[in-house]
Design goal:
Elements lengths: L4 H5 L3 H10 L4 H17 L9 E5 L5 H9 L8 E3 L6 E6 L4 E7 L10 H13 L4 H16 L3 H4 E5 L13 E3 L6 E3 L4 E2 L5 E2 L1 H7 L2
Parallel strand pairs: 1-2
Antiparallel strand pairs: 1-3, 3-4, 4-5, 6-7, 8-9
Helix pairs in contact: 2-4, 3-4, 3-6, 5-6
Length: 208
């Protein structure tokens, strides 16, 4: 999606950072942006330099990228935990005081912007599979801008939760797989026949 300078000038600077990282503006990114901003407010957060903040994401949608940018929760640091549940739900945890909230999209989206007829037409085309790439791009823009105009509580439910706080990312040595000889995290090696320790990909081949 191509952005004009006029459009960018009307967007929050922290959202522009998310767009620059993600590559484009879309509804999914806005969902993550909304969750991150609400979590920052409720938990009094600053961007996580290490593992001070944990995000448990119940999908792998575009929203996760906004959490990475604003909260500093990343796969590489081990403080972004992915659960493949297909839900637009995110639990944000502050380690220092053990406070945490789960944010979950609570309603089916309804467009409330000024271009209702255009949005409805494109929406129907998308669901019928006949939408052009230009229409899909326009749809993303209309929905994204409309979401940004909504109150957080219109879109997401917020619930305090009490979960066991995940441990810090472990530091483990690497050992060679007994079959392919490639260095593998010792905690990811699988014991097979004759007590050999092999990587997961080699263990899958054995089981075929």
């Amino acid at each position: 999606m191509i952005f004009t300078e006029n459009l960018k000038s009307n967007l929050p600077q922290d959202l522009i950072k998310c767009i620059d990282f993600h590559g484009h503006l879309c509804p999914g990114l806005v969902y993550g942006y909304m969750v991150a901003k609400e979590a920052i407010y409720l938990l009094e957060l600053k961007r996580s330099g290490d593992e001070e903040i944990i995000a448990i994401c119940e999908n792998d949608s575009c929203a996760v990228d906004a959490l990475q940018v604003l909260l500093g929760t990343t796969i590489g640091k081990g403080n972004l935990i992915f659960k493949n549940y297909g839900k637009n739900a995110y639990t944000i945890i502050r380690r220092s005081n053990k406070k945490m909230f789960r944010f979950c999209r609570k309603t089916y989206y309804q467009y409330d912007g000024k271009d209702k007829e255009e949005f409805a037409s494109i929406d129907a085309a998308i669901h019928s599979g006949s939408a052009s790439e230009e229409e899909k791009s326009r749809y993303k823009l209309l929905k994204s801008l409309d979401l940004l105009s909504k109150c957080f509580n219109e879109v997401f439910s917020t619930n305090k939760v009490n979960l066991s706080i995940p441990p810090y990312a472990s530091i483990t040595r690497s050992e060679p797989c007994a079959i392919c000889k490639e260095l593998t995290m010792s905690t990811r090696l699988v014991k097979v026949e004759n007590g050999r320790l092999v990587c997961i990909s080699c263990s899958n081949k054995i089981n075929l």
